[in-house]
Amino acid sequence: MLLATLVAVVEVLVNGARRIDGIRLILPAAVLILFAFLQTIPLPGNAVGGLTVAAWNTISADPYETRFAATQLIALMLVVLLVSRYANTEHRRTVLIQVVLGVAVTSAIYGILRQTVQRDTGFILPLLRPGSGYGQFINKNHFAYLMEMAFGLGLGLIAFGGVKRKHAMIYVAILLPIWTALVLSNSRGGILAMVGQLFIATLLLSYFKRNSPVGAQVLFRVTQSPFMRLGLILTLVIALGVGTIWVGGDRLLSNFEAVGGEFSTDQSGPSGGVTRNEIWRATLRTIADHPIFGVGIGGYWIAVTAHHNASGTMTPQEAHNDYLELLASGGIVGFAIGVWFACVAFKLIRKNLRTGNTHTNSICLAAVVGLSGALLHSIFDFGLHLMINALVFAVLLALATMTVQQNGQGEFVDLNGGNQ
Predict the structure, then answer these.
(1) What is the mean pLDDT of residues 156-168?
(2) CB 160 within 8 A of CB 205
(3) Contact 197, 155 (CB under 8 A)
(4) Share of residues in the chain with pLDDT > 70 (%)
(5) Which alpha helices (H) appear in 87-139, and where do they start and end?
(6) CA atoms within 13 A on the CB side of 78
(7) How many CB atoms lie within 10 A of CB 85?
């Protein structure tokens, strides 16, 4: 990443570029990174036993982890900048989309094979244990994040006309193993996020202006009716639900039946008090103790121990809600920066949708559907803490917000190689 950034800097200097693509989007991220480093600055220390322990007298409960998290944010920020600058034509965006879908479908097939074939520890990757995690991930929910982002991207391309009709079935074939692996991973948050993506895609479909054949125009007019939209959503959800239950079977149903235990206040069970209810309560108490500046980006896992009333044999490492964790880690200041970032992204997406180019709009909306899966799932889990998921999220964010250049003839390049 550093080498690619250095090459990009040289290229910008040689070509004398007057503007940096993506700078508006990463500005709030840069402020958040600066804020994270400020959380690690030692404050005037107190003398303890004749020694001054200023090195640990910081806003952050874990300065090392805060600096490490800030470094990761820098890497993701550079990814957004590089994608915005060098994947800013239709052809390059097509290649990037195919890479994302290719990684996802490969992971999906690997996960399905591992579930059906693996009997001993190690399946190509040496440390994977049978029945633990899914695919190449040690946490099934982290695997679900990758699947739902790719599923939303592919679904959006088909729904919004991002691919030619004759190529649509190819993308359907790609999505089938992704959907199957997502269901078989037995991730409740992933399945709920997928249902939410269908709901969002249906709503967006009615506002998507199509310059396409009569069939698409009929679909556009049909989805203008609130009753038809509701009927379409219900039909899709029912069909998805039946298919999900059929593929997931009793194992999936049992997992959903256990939801009540996640919000139980009983700490005597095998979970040792590590339920979402207890974690969220402890997080809220942490927020109340550090409301302004938080406990440090990446410092949550240390700070929450002061408020978590479990036995001590198991303590939460994450809040299992990225929005609560941002509020706990960054306080009101950090959360406000996050809201600023979301507002900037929303404005850039809305600007992209006003370009009047069908393929630009379709790719933008497809990326939005992919992003929505991760954003919905983050209400219950923390899969974006994993770098590969955060990287895919950053790529989708760049696809949704970047400005697309025209070719030399002043025409937009078609997603499948033609001209718009």
Answers:
(1) 83
(2) yes
(3) yes
(4) 73
(5) 90-117
(6) 15
(7) 18
